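Technical note accompanying the year-one report. For the benefit of new consortium partners, we illustrate the data format agreed upon in the data management plan: each record pairs a sequence with a structure-token string. No post-processing was applied to the example shown here.
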Amino acid sequence: MKFEIPKPMKIEHDKLHAELVKATKEGGRTGDAAKAVAKVLHPHFVKEEEFALPPLGLLAKLIYGGVEPEMADVLKMTARLEAELPQMLPSTRTSSPR
């Protein structure tokens, strides 16, 4: 079964990516900073598109009870997301204020 990213999310993701690409073409420090951000975020964007966001396409079907055996294929994606999520998210640990 093919799992598709919900259209509003895909549009927003594409828009964010396009803005980042646009910023990388700016000159000076802005362009340099955008290039550094793009370098860090590119693997994250790829993983989101590959296995983090597509399972969300099942939500509408699940809400309305449209469960099909083929939906079990999504478990491969969600297992991969669970395994790779710590590397995809920035550390949320902060030192406690003194």
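Partners are asked to follow this layout when depositing records. Confidence is low (pLDDT under 50) at residues 93-98.
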